[in-house]
Design goal:
The chain has 186 residues and is α+β, with helices and mostly antiparallel strands. The protein is built from 4 helices and 5 strands. A hairpin with a 5-residue loop joins strand 3 and strand 4. It comes from Candidatus Nitrotoga arctica.
Length: 186
């Protein structure tokens, strides 16, 4: 199409099209620069954030001989069970604030407590064989009295938490405001 001879210009529609193309091209260049800049910023922040992550603690060697009441079972070290029952909040505080033997302790999960009561280390919550072999005598030989013990596993009902009876590895619910015994694990 030739320019309009009278005006010496292209038709107005063509001028508008050229203007739109130039705006789009400028917008595209601007967005490309913005994306490159933001990507570089995110990568920089990601590297900086990764450097601030807490490095995993190297586990210290287990003591040559554990003090009475402490046991190792299933790759976990267990602190002796408490003599007095406490609420769930107190149990969590007891374990998280303990530095016994130089370790950081936590409240065990329901499955860890069930496995503690079994020779084979399995975590099935129900007795699956007639000759159910428990670890009760081994726990008692360490001075443990086998009570219901708090777990860190929340119940499926609000306000209830799983507890495990160490006599037979039976799980049940305990009211968070009720009391039960504590054994911490690391």
């Amino acid at each position: 199409m030739a320019p309009n001879a009278a005006a010496g210009r292209w038709p107005p529609l063509f001028d508008a099209y050229i203007l739109v193309l130039s705006v789009h091209e400028a917008y595209y260049r601007h967005m490309k620069k913005l994306i490159i800049t933001l990507t570089a910023l995110l990568l920089t922040l990601n590297v900086a954030w990764a450097d601030t992550l807490k490095k995993p603690e190297v586990p210290s060697a287990a003591p040559a001989k554990l003090p009475p009441g402490y046991i190792i079972n299933g790759g976990l070290t267990w602190a002796p069970i408490t003599a007095t029952p406490v609420t769930l909040a107190e149990a969590i505080n007891i374990c998280s604030s303990s530095t016994a033997l130089g370790y950081k302790w936590r409240l065990p999960t329901k499955d860890e407590l069930v496995a503690l009561t079994r020779y084979d280390g399995s975590t099935l919550g129900i007795r699956h064989e007639i000759a159910y072999r428990s670890n009760v005598s081994a726990l008692r030989s360490q001075g443990w009295t086998l009570y219901d013990v708090w777990s860190s596993t929340p119940g499926t009902v609000f306000g209830l938490q799983f507890i495990v009876n160490l006599e037979g590895g039976i799980t049940n619910y305990g009211d968070e405001n009720g009391v039960s015994h504590v054994s911490c694990v690391k």
